């Protein structure tokens, strides 16, 4: 059975005004079902991201080998039809690996339920900010670190920091990309793996409207 829970976040801003923002999320009442949903969503994401690039050519795909090396009878040697036979050096490969893309499907409601559950469980590790303000016109890592320090986040203290914004601008992306333990994603691309890895989550106030799953 699904129940609707309300999450109230305190919004942090530069003026230190006390504001709050509320979102409603659907989660499962049963904890076992919650874990099952998260597990299924994670497996689905990992499988869809998997690609096997190893690729070998069969005798029909190897270039050349159109001419019969010698006549069928009368030479005393074994009969052969092509120099690209798998028995020959430079020939094709029998039962070799082929490039494969793996796909799996999960229902949209089930995926949303898993994301909602993680957001609810990680609300104590979540910070809401009015906006991420980069003061410089050009992208600077130093400016990005100052922005995080203003909301009391020490970058060296955490292994993984997830920042969720409404729109990933070029200025934001270039400012944060050199910081190895920070992942910057748009709210519409929110996923299970990013939420699970994150030790602390920073969400902009504007992106909460997108996250607010009905």
TrEMBL record:
Free-text function comment from the UniProt entry: Probably binds the 23S rRNA.
Taxonomy, superkingdom: Eukaryota
Residues covered by region (Disordered): 57-83
Single annotated GO MF: rRNA binding
Similarity comment: family membership: Belongs to the universal ribosomal protein uL4 family.
Keyword vocabulary terms for this entry: Plastid, Ribonucleoprotein, Ribosomal protein, RNA-binding, rRNA-binding
Name of encoding gene: rpl4
Organism: Laurencia snackeyi
Matches recorded under InterPro entries: Ribosomal_uL4, Ribosomal_uL4-like, Ribosomal_uL4_dom_sf
PANTHER family in UniProt: 50S RIBOSOMAL PROTEIN L4, LARGE RIBOSOMAL SUBUNIT PROTEIN UL4C
Segments of skewed composition (Basic residues): 65-76
GO cellular component entries: ribonucleoprotein complex; ribosome
Name of the protein in its database record: Large ribosomal subunit protein uL4c
GO BP annotation list: translation
Gene3D superfamilies given in the database record: 3.40.1370.10
């Amino acid at each position: 059975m699904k129940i609707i829970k309300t999450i109230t976040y305190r919004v942090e801003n530069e003026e230190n005004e006390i504001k709050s923002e509320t979102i409603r999320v659907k989660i499962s009442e049963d904890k076992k079902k919650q874990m099952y949903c998260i597990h299924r969503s994670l497996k689905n994401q990992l499988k869809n991201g998997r690609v096997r690039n190893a690729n070998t050519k069969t005798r029909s795909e190897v270039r050349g080998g159109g001419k019969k090396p010698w006549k069928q009878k009368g030479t005393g040697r074994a009969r052969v039809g092509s120099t690209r036979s798998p028995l020959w050096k430079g020939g094709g490969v029998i039962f070799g690996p082929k490039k494969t893309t793996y796909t799996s499907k999960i229902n949209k409601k089930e995926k949303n339920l898993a994301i909602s559950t993680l957001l609810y469980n990680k609300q104590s590790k979540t910070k809401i900010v009015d906006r991420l303000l980069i003061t410089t016109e050009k992208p600077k890592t130093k400016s990005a670190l100052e922005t995080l320090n203003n909301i009391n986040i020490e970058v060296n203290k955490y292994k993984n920091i997830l920042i969720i914004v409404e729109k990933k601008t070029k200025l934001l992306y270039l400012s944060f990309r050199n910081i190895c333990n920070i992942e910057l994603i748009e709210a519409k691309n929110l996923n299970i793996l990013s939420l699970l890895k994150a030790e602390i989550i920073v969400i902009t106030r504007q992106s909460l409207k997108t996250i607010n799953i009905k």
